[in-house]
């Protein structure tokens, strides 16, 4: 079996947005390949136009204040022009990810806690960054960075947590709007509760095809399925009939299913595994049982080792907003150990390594299937 050791960096920054960006630049500038990728047009395209740059900067100031200063600090540290930083393409571009995520509300979880867990699955050529920030004017937060300034997921100082997964594999983009890393960062920066997050979400123009799960320390949770301007909401929690939510890489809310977007087999397999595991564990589910779902390989669980095929688990996490902790496993949780993090780590960089065991996917792994 082919395997690879992957390095993960945990970067902790604080101060003004400019200072935090400069700290990140200094932490990352020695990785020339990474810096080239972060300062080149997205996907080998053309440079962003002055008109579009101004437009995106204005939108960042509106929804994610401090982003432009953070980018400027980063650019100054690495000796680049701020307008060349790839994150300015995040109003139009997309980043594929094949993920599973689950939220358990207090009424069905052991110890009456709320837990939001997820696996992030992709190719092993990634360079994952766990970023913890204490930036003036923003809520303190921890989560995995996407293009440094965006987030794949995260939890802030008020216990507001968010995770995402692709709703459609390789969609065709036909509308303008933000893609998920900006949406996630804006919510972490500005929102204390699921209600506030939904209000901010509704005000944002989104081009992405994405599933979002949001949870707060008060026991409320929401699944938002988005196909550009089309979106649907499902709630769970204290006053809702649903006590848990989960998502993989397709839509399940009836109004979104009706849109008829293609679905791949592995998404259905993971969806069915999550449902079966939760229903078998009711009426009460522990954090350990949630981790077991994330750690068990398909088809019984959702962990994947198909790294060279673009579907290997790079990290897993379980947010515990009532305790203000997140348990993280770097690499496959089937063979690597979990570690606990909070929001009080000292500034600087700490490195972790994890083993990624590659296995070839079966020929029908990416096969289109129906969602009946």
Write the layout of secondary structure elements.
Blueprint: E1 3-15, H1 17-28, H2 32-38, H3 50-63, H4 67-78, E2 98-104, E3 115-122, E4 129-135, E5 141-146, E6 150-151, E7 154-156, E8 161-166, H5 180-190, H6 194-202, E9 209-215, E10 221-227, E11 230-236, E12 244-247, H7 254-257, E13 263-264, H8 265-281, H9 287-295, E14 305-306, E15 311-320, E16 325-330, E17 338-341, E18 348-357, E19 368-369
Parallel strand pairs: 1-4
Antiparallel strand pairs: 1-18, 2-3, 2-12, 3-15, 4-5, 5-6, 5-7, 7-8, 8-9, 9-10, 10-11, 13-19, 14-15, 15-16, 16-17
Helix pairs in contact: 1-4, 5-6
Structure characterization notes:
By secondary structure, this protein is an alpha+beta fold. The protein contains 9 helices and 19 strands. The strands form 3 sheets. Strands 1, 4, 5, 6, 7, 8, 9, 10, 11 and 18 form a 10-stranded mixed sheet that branches. Strands 2, 3, 12, 14, 15, 16 and 17 form a 7-stranded antiparallel sheet that branches. It has a two-stranded antiparallel ribbon with strand order 13-19. Strand 5 and strand 6 form a beta hairpin. Helix 1 runs parallel beside helix 4 (67-78). The longest helix is centred in the last third of the chain and has 17 residues, at 265-281. The radius of gyration is 19 Å and the shape is globular. The model has no long low-confidence stretch (mean pLDDT 95).
| CATH architecture level-2 label of the largest domain | 4-Layer Sandwich
Q: Give the domain tally.
A: 2
- The Rg value, from CA coordinates, equals 19 Å
Q: Looking at CATH, which topology of the largest domain would you report?
A: Penicillin V Acylase, Chain A
CATH class of the largest domain, named: Alpha Beta
Residue share in β-strands: 25-35%
The biggest beta sheet is recorded as: 10 strands, mixed
What is the β-strand count?
Answer: 19
Mean pLDDT: 95
CATH superfamily of the largest domain: Penicillin V Acylase, Chain A
Q: N- to C-terminal separation?
A: 36 Å
């Amino acid at each position: 079996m082919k395997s690879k050791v992957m390095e993960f960096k945990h970067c902790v920054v604080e101060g003004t947005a400019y200072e935090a960006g400069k700290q990140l630049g200094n932490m990352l500038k020695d990785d020339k390949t990474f810096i080239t990728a972060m300062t080149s047009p997205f996907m080998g395209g053309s440079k962003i136009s002055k008109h579009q740059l101004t437009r995106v900067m204005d939108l960042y100031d509106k929804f994610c204040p401090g982003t432009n200063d953070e980018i400027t600090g980063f650019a100054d540290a690495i000796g680049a022009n701020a307008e060349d930083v790839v994150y300015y393409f995040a109003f139009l571009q997309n980043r594929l990810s094949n993920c599973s995520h689950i939220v358990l509300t207090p009424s069905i979880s052991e110890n009456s806690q709320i837990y939001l867990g997820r696996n992030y699955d992709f190719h092993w050529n990634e360079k994952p960054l766990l970023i913890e920030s204490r930036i003036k004017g923003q809520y303190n937060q921890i989560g995995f960075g996407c293009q440094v300034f965006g987030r794949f997921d995260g939890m802030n100082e008020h216990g507001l947590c968010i995770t995402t997964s692709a709703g459609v594999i390789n969609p065709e983009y036909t509308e303008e709007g933000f893609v998920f890393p900006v949406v996630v960062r804006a919510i972490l920066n500005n929102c204390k509760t699921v209600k506030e997050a939904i209000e901010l979400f509704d005000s944002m123009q989104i081009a992405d095809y994405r599933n979002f799960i949001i949870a707060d320390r008060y026991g409320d949770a929401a699944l938002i399925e988005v196909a550009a301007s089309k979106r649907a909401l499902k709630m769970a929690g204290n006053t809702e009939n649903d006590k848990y939510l989960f998502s993989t890489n397709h839509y399940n809310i009836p109004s979104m299913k009706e849109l008829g977007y293609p679905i791949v087999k592995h998404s259905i397999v993971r969806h069915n595994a999550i449902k079966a595991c939760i229903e078998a564990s009711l009426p009460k589910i522990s954090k350990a049982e949630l981790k077991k779902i994330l750690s068990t390989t398909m088809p019984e669980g959702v962990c994947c080792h198909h790294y060279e095929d673009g579907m290997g688990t790079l990290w897993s996490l379980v947010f515990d907003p009532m305790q203000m902790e997140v348990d993280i496993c770097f690499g496959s949780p089937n063979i690597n150990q979990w570690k606990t993090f909070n929001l009080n780590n000292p500034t600087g960089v700490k490195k972790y390594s994890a083993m990624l065991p590659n296995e070839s996917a079966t020929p029908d792994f990416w096969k289109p299937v129906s969602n009946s």
